[in-house]
User: What shape does this take?
Amino acid sequence: MLRYLTKRLMLLVGIVFVISVGSFYLIHLLPGNPATVILGFGATPEAKAILYKQLGLSKPIYLQYFVWLGNILHGNLGVSFISQTTVSSVIRSALPIDGEIIILSQIMAFAAAIPTAMRSARKPDGIIDRVLGATSFTLLSIPPYILIVVLVLFISIKLGVSGTGPSAYVSLGTDWITNLESLSLPAFTLATVSFVVYYRILRSDLIATLQEEFITMARSKGISQRRIMWCHAFRPSSVALLGAASVNIGSLLAAGFVVQYLLQIPGLGYTLILAINESDFLVVQGIVLTVSVLVVAINFFFDFVINMVDPRISRE
Amino acid sequence: MSDDKLLVVRDLTTTFATAGGDLPAVAGVSFDLARNETLGIVGESGSGKTVLSRTIMGLQPRVNTTVTGSSIIDGFEVVGASENEKRTIWGTEVAMVFQDPMTSLNPVMRIGKQIDEALRVRLGMNRKDAKARAIELLELVGIPSPVQRYNAYPGQLSGGMRQRVVIAIALACSPKLLMADEPTTGLDVTIQAQILNLLDELKERLKTSVILVTHDLGVVATRTSRILVMYAGRIVETGTTRDVFYHHRMPYTRALLESSPKVANKSHTRLVTIPGRPPNLLSLSDGCSFAPRCKYATDQCHLVRPELQPSVEPGHTFACWNPLPINAEATLP
Assistant: This one.
């Protein structure tokens, strides 16, 4: 297990390295002088000179990378030339919002997918399974950016449920109930996307697992159907589910960006889109780097969980 | 029901609804099992042995399966009982040792937990007592260093060790009847003997009745008091182990005995086989199912199914229109 995780970790370090090179190069890919790109067109020659010295822009590009990497490792992602605050503080205030939306959506998705998948798997092709299958297919065909608009139109505007519409965001620190209200529609939207994937994967894996001899064996012990489902069938069936969740997180962040932008929730996505529009490149760079590292870290975390769930994996 | 009978099976029939039609996997099986008796059920692959043993305890698949007849385990009618009703006898009255220890243990659950579970759920033991009992059981089935093995996953044990764990689980709630469905098929020959001896020993020690299902006549020869020979879902001959081996009347029993390799044979002796294949259960004729492969078959055999009829020895019956002569020979193993 330890060996397996060490191997995975080394691979991830490699991936993070590639990501860091990519984000570093982002600035150089843009037309114009990096100093102009970073400081904007109105920058004074003095400011440019300071930046030149700070980033070592006169040095060869690979040395510039190490200077940049050194800064990053010290938590210095630069300063936004629009708001004049540090990029790290921008990220620190935006990131928890994404975290909250994703965690809420995943709780909803798993809470809905696990019992429904079990219900379906108990009688494949039964009435309940067919209804759930059709429902999940319908949900699958509704993209999140349509769903959020429909939800806002219906719930916030038509039904007039307060605190759920655009620009209604309240931070968790201010009032957690209002905060949950303001994030409920985005989280629900993301949850439906995940729910469909989780439900379908878990359903088919459960059906396969329930055919296994060890399930008949568990039955012959005289334990309840519910216990067979939760204690014997669920765990061996959840490996693909966790794998899907791990991959899903990346696309959830992306879907979250769109939803945040539409509802003007100041998470990473909203901040990123604003920064792109305002050509605030250091903020863009910081967010891209943060999100990439986050996705990699989440994947590693899921690797670890999958290993705990099925000890056969690391044994090869 | 007289008190010395633990199991009474009458006209038990298991039919699977398949895409090709109704498949009678077990058709009209009747027999009794006394307390502390060991009964062998033999037959080649596909003869319905496994389905019969599962149907007896009500463990047949829950969908597309129809069971009729009667199977009474210690006064409990299994046929027609709901899953919840059957759960009250599973584990405590009747338990099963499964065929393949590679697939019959949950791969992601520590073996100790798999033994504990039955003790805690069925006998209401607390965590600590259940663990102590599980370790005792592991010791009983001959697993070395049971305290450490308690935390092992099935993948960390060899096939023979896993089968011992399967036996420990089956014995956990001290069942009165143990169904052993080909308990040694997935194992090496040397391990086979160990497992069978273990079952014998435990049977004596715990006063359990055993039904030993196998295709290997060598397995049942010395361990059972009576044998049922099955073919195409029916019993074709039954009697004491001695009668079946030495006084069999049904040509299929003879063919089955002849096709076991014998130690006395010279090297490179061609193994005797039964020509043809077991019949397709979806399209059985009205006659004897074995007739197409039988060298003694007559027109009658193809047209009318023979019923079980008594032979000279008490309790010895066979289903054949052209039985082998009485006391045909006494040279088989």
